[in-house]
């Protein structure tokens, strides 16, 4: 039995992966932002679980919430075999950027800085496992932006904000962090980033969209990959005896190329340094 923490486990791919892993006999720690939705998801996961999953409240845009979640996990488990940083925000209805109390743009805070800090805080528990793994998530939509770069001089600058730009900017950072972590912890940690394609949304998420956006999104949603497929991908990466052939793979576990900027070693080191500074210089086990 592995102990596996997964963020965003209350819906979509995260919920499917949590179901699959718990039904296979693993101990799932379901990290969810909203306690009410988290409790509903936990009942769903545990309906088929061999060992009951546990709910951990965590809002990845709030450093204090991340620290509290990491402390909770440390008290509940002596080690952590797998961390799946699945949770992300992609609110396409936003027309103006939203900023956290720390002054970070919400997409950057939730989709990059939050997973970065959570991984650092949980790294001692991962280091205590015999064969630990971290799984991060990127997007196939980056294929349409082969020249995308990290905006080091304007990470929280509102002038360039759009939901699409902010989302893919953070996803590029997730790829780069994965590559850096794979190098830093080589031989001690398996680090993988999954390139996720368009995934079919749950009915409640579609219903919550504004009417026009829901109408425009309907054809894309019908053609999208079922969340169950990606849930199985996550589960395989978490539990397979052998890791993937490269740190960046698609939904079918095939090696894929990232945007060129992700392979710039100096840029990756700079991203690590600014992420460290933005998250309070957390200690790492590697």
What this model shows, in words?
The structure is a single chain. With about 290 residues, the chain is of the alpha/beta class. It has one domain: 3-Layer(aba) Sandwich (Rossmann fold), CATH 3.40.50.720. It has 9 helices and 7 strands; from the N terminus they run βαβαβαβαβαβαααβα. The protein has helices spanning about 10-25, 35-45, 65-75, 105-125, 165-185, 205, 210-225, 225-240, 265-280; strands at about 5, 25-30, 55, 80-85, 135-140, 190-195, 250. A 7-stranded parallel beta sheet has the order 3-2-1-4-5-6-7, sandwiched between helices. Helix 1 runs parallel beside helix 2. The longest helix has 22 residues, at about 105-125. It is globular, with a radius of gyration of 18 Å. The mean pLDDT is about 90.
SSE diagram, text form:
Elements: E1 3-7, H1 12-23, E2 27-32, H2 35-46, E3 54-57, H3 63-76, E4 82-85, H4 106-127, E5 133-139, H5 163-184, E6 190-196, H6 203-207, H7 211-223, H8 227-239, E7 248-250, H9 265-278
Parallel strand pairs: 1-2, 1-4, 2-3, 4-5, 5-6, 6-7
Helix pairs in contact: 1-2, 1-8, 3-4, 4-5, 5-9
């Amino acid at each position: 039995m592995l102990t596996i923490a997964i963020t965003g486990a209350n819906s979509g791919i995260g919920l499917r992966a949590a179901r699959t892993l718990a039904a296979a006999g693993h101990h799932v720690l379901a990290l969810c932002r909203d306690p009410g939705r988290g409790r509903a998801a936990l009942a769903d996961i545990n309906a088929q679980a061999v060992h009951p999953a546990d709910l951990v409240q965590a809002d990845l845009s709030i450093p204090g919430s991340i620290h509290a979640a990491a402390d909770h996990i440390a008290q509940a488990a002596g080690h952590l075999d797998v961390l799946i940083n699945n949770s992300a925000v992609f609110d396409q209805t936003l027309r103006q950027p939203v900023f956290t109390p720390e002054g970070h743009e919400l997409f950057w805070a939730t989709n990059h800085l939050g997973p970065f800090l959570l991984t650092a805080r949980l790294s001692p528990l991962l280091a205590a496992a015999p064969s630990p793994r971290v799984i991060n998530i990127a997007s196939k939509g980056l294929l349409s932006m082969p020249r995308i770069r990290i905006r080091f001089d304007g990470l929280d600058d509102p002038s360039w904000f759009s939901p699409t730009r902010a989302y893919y900017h953070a996803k590029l950072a997730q790829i780069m962090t994965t590559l850096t972590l794979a190098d830093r912890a080589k031989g001690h940690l398996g680090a993988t980033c999954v390139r996720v394609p368009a995934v079919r949304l749950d009915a409640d998420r579609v219903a919550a969209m504004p009417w026009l956006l829901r109408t425009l999104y309907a054809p894309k949603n019908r053609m999208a990959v079922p969340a169950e497929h990606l849930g199985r991908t996550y589960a395989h990466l978490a539990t397979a005896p052998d890791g993937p052939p490269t740190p960046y793979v698609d939904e079918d576990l095939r090696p894929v190329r990232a945007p060129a900027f992700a392979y710039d070693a100096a840029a990756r080191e700079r991203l690590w340094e600014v992420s460290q500074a933005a998250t309070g210089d957390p200690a790492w086990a590697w």
